[in-house]
Amino acid sequence: MQSSSELNGSSERSLESEQTREFLLLLIRQKIKDYPLSDRAIFELSYNTNISSTELINLNTSDVDFTRKIVRIDRGNETELIHITDNCVSLLEEMCSMIIYGDSPLFLNSKGERINLSNLWFIKRKFSIEIYPDP
Fold it and tell me: Which residues in the chain come in under a pLDDT of 50?
């Protein structure tokens, strides 16, 4: 059995880890603040959820529930609800106000078509270069 000092040390490390994560998230958001709205929404969804690239590109506007702060995704034969952050909700609401609701793709490329994996890779690569620039 762990002593109370061991448990306190563990919770302190957990708190420090969460504070570090939040600090890094704020730094990253600051670095990408001038990126297109959809790119920032992709970052928020990718960073704060366990959504896969394929699930992300297959999202439609109807999959987002702003009131409940969830995104609905299909995983195999099941539908899963993923909670999203307030910041992600704000970005997606702003983004969706500019596109047609219904079953429209959530993320569009420059031609107005659903983004594909290559488009998503390019966007994520931009994040990587911004966050981890070459020395």
Answer: none
Contact criterion met (CB below 8 Å) for 73 and 63? yes
Q: Are residues 23 and 43 in the same domain?
A: no
CATH classification at residue 96: 1.10.443.10
Task: Enter the tokens of residue 46.
Answer: 């990718």
pTM, two decimal places: 0.76
Element (H, E) at 20: helix 4-31
Nearest to 32 by CA among 70, 84, 87, 106: 87
What's the chain's Rg over C-alpha atoms?
A: 18
Task: For Cα atoms 90, 49, 60, give the angle at the middle one, nearest 5 degrees.
Answer: 60
By C-alpha distance, which of 91, 97, 5 is closest to 40?
91
53 and 21 in a common domain: no
* Beta carbons within 10 angstroms of residue 16's beta carbon: 10
62 shares its domain with 27: no
pLDDT in tens, 1-33: 555 555 566 677 776 777 777 787 788 878 878
